[in-house]
Design goal:
The protein has 12 helices and 10 strands. By secondary structure, the chain is of the alpha/beta class. The strands form 2 sheets. It has a 6-stranded parallel β-sheet with strand order 4-3-1-2-9-10, sandwiched between helices. A 4-stranded parallel β-sheet has the order 6-5-7-8, sandwiched between helices. The longest helix is centred in the first third of the chain and has 17 residues. The radius of gyration is 18 Å and the shape is globular. It binds D-glutamic acid. D-glutamic acid (DGL) binds next to helix 4.
Length: 273
């Protein structure tokens, strides 16, 4: 019998939360890399956006979301929101006795490794950019890297609206991304889990030579490594359908979530926190 099979706790789910549907880009990557893990996702759609709110409020919402997931018996938590990862990670680690992973560190480390000209762009919500969380990690890896950070708050609404290829999105993106093009960054971190939904517009404007770092992909690798290191992978072989909770029951979010995940077996449920 393997070490994994000895521990029934390994079949406990992984908890994931975001302010809305953006974190589903993280869930999608986690399902790709860890198909036999059970996953519970919470999208706090009633209180979206987080990116314009104060640290205190984001910490309060994040603690509430995590309590809900911990009550469901999760074995680890993935904060699939850059804003909450920038502002609330320490508070969550202190409050809950489970491993808590955020999206900033893996994305920042990847960007620092990828750049060839030493100029990295970071786009995110106002709160994420103001926290300077990406800059700090990137400079820990390589202190000489120049980091150009630009908040792009309208991207969240455009993604939530489902306007992933729209000409309005293109115009907004051109304006936001201009300073990054001028500074000739060769790597751009999509520092908000909503932004991968706009990837084709963003890469169309930045050009194919600029490498985009998707925090969703990076965190999925880190979660797999964590489970392997701790010996807490689910030993089961069956593919598990995720369970998705939303704090607002709007049909619009449901449609969008179904489109992003494109998994017919996903169970959706409204929850009042
Ligand atoms: N998806 C969240 C993030 O990664 C931002 C969306 C919001 O402002 O709530 O920061």
């Amino acid at each position: 019998m393997t070490r994994l099979e000895e521990d029934p706790g390994n079949s406990r789910p992984i908890g994931i939360f975001d302010s809305g549907v953006g974190g589903l880009t993280v869930l999608r990557q986690l399902l790709r890399r860890l198909p036999s893990e059970r996953m519970i996702y919470l999208g706090d759609t009633a209180r979206l956006p987080y990116g314009t709110k104060s640290r205190e409020t984001v910490v309060k919402y994040s603690l509430k979301n995590t309590s809900f997931l911990v009550e469901k018996g999760i074995k680890c938590l993935v904060v699939a929101c850059n804003t909450a990862s920038s502002l609330a990670l320490e508070a969550l680690r202190q409050a809950f006795p489970i491993p808590v992973l955020g999206v900033i560190q893996p994305g920042a480390e990847r960007a620092a490794r990828l750049t060839r000209n030493g100029r990295v762009g970071v786009i995110g919500t106002v709160a994420t950019i103001r926290s300077r969380a990406y800059e700090e990690v990137i400079r820990t890896v390589e202190s000489s890297i120049e980091v150009v950070s630009v908040p792009c708050p309208l991207f969240v609404s455009l993604a939530e609206e489902g306007w992933t290829q729209d000409e309005v999105t293109y115009l907004v993106a051109e304006r936001y991304l201009e300073p990054l093009r001028k500074r000739d960054v060769d790597v751009l971190v999509l520092g908000c889990t909503h932004y991968p939904l706009l990837k084709s517009v963003i890469s169309g404007i930045m050009g194919e030579k600029v490498r985009l770092v998707d925090s969703a992909e990076e965190i999925a690798v880190q979660v797999r490594n964590l489970l392997d290191q701790n010996g807490t992978r689910n030993a089961g072989r069956e593919r598990c359908a995720p369970k998705v909770y939303m704090t607002d029951s709007s049909p619009h979010f449901l449609e969008l979530a179904q489109m992003i995940l494109s998994l017919p077996a996903t169970e959706f449920e409204y929850v009042d926190l």
